[in-house]
Write a structure and sequence with these properties.
By secondary structure, the chain is mostly helical. It contains twelve helices and no strands. α2 packs antiparallel against α3 and α5 crosses α11.
Length: about 300
């Protein structure tokens, strides 16, 4: 990118530290905006605002789903696009890795082969993800965090109470499509790319974005597996050169859980806590080896990203 091209973007008029501050500001502003949007949905559906503060407040599953959709939309998707436009104007989609552009040579076109490999990597990561979850469960947690986790799990169970195929598609949009696009734009497309723009080492940028990604969900009993997911998604962007690859992998990760829950309805207890006694170490070993092989193949097929500027 030439000096003349650099000067036309707001990101080049501020310090590296301010770029990170701006991202954090937008992130927390978005989270607050998402909470307000959720409240707006509840009020729009006729619930009394006073009932929101009562311990026994229990909206129906349609209300919960619409609240989740509004929360994702206003917490991550809209704020991410807004900040991207502020930093890079009409080049925001190229900066985040959504499309190729001569000014961003690290971007690559999205190849079907890479999408297939990314989906396979995510599916093969499941045994290792389950192992990390069980390890995470061994870490002592304050009672307040456990209660928060249980409350969140209860909401997820309610959202996954699916009784028809149209309802399944509706839930997939809410729990898989929207989070995949919004969260990948916010954490990988913006935060990870801003870190790289600041000349932060690629591996450190991936680790930091995964760390913040897992922390911001405020579900610490699943911190390690979500951090691991963030690492996978970060490296898919770094080596694949397209945010669509990370978005697709994120969609597969979330969508698989929704689809499996729907078709296994009545055969699995969503409220049950996984136990070591249920863990299949043979599946874990085979899955982890295959995960490593496919991941290495993906890395071998894609060159390391060039410098951002």
């Amino acid at each position: 990118m030439t000096n003349k091209e650099q000067q036309k973007y707001f990101i080049n008029t501020v310090t590296p530290g301010f770029r990170i501050f701006a991202w954090l500001l937008i992130l927390f502003f978005g989270i607050g905006l998402g909470q307000m949007a959720s409240v707006g949905v509840i009020m729009g559906l006729g619930y009394d605002i006073q009932s929101l503060t009562t311990p026994d407040f229990a909206p129906d599953k349609t209300a919960v789903r619409l609240m989740a959709f509004a929360n994702q939309l206003f917490s991550f998707l809209i704020p991410a696009i807004f900040l991207g436009f502020v930093l890079f104007k009409n080049k925001w989609s190229a900066f985040t890795g959504l499309k190729t552009d001569p000014e961003f040579p690290q971007n690559k076109s999205t190849k079907p082969k890479d999408l297939l490999l990314a989906g396979l990597i995510i599916i093969l990561s499941w045994p290792l993800t389950q192992f990390l979850y069980l390890v995470n469960m061994e870490i002592p947690m304050p009672e307040i965090l456990i209660n928060m986790e249980n409350s969140t799990n209860g909401i997820i169970e309610q959202m996954l109470n699916i009784n028809s195929l149209p309802e399944l598609l509706f839930v997939l949009i809410i729990m898989a499509v929207t989070p995949a696009i919004g969260e990948e734009l916010m954490f990988r497309g913006l935060f990870q790319r801003i870190l790289r723009y600041n000349k932060v080492n690629m591996h450190l940028a991936v680790i930091l974005s995964a760390l913040v990604f897992s922390t911001i969900h405020m579900q610490f009993q699943g911190f390690l597996p979500r951090f691991f997911l963030g690492l996978i998604l970060g490296y898919l962007l770094a080596f694949g050169g397209s945010l669509w690859i990370a978005i697709f992998a994120h969609f597969i990760f979330n969508g698989t859980q929704v689809v499996v829950t729907y078709f296994a309805k009545g055969q699995m207890d969503l409220s049950a806590t996984p136990q070591w006694s249920d863990f299949n170490f043979i599946l874990f070993a085979v899955g982890t080896v295959l995960f490593g092989i496919v991941t290495y193949y993906f890395w071998n097929q894609n060159q390391l990203e060039p410098q951002d500027n």
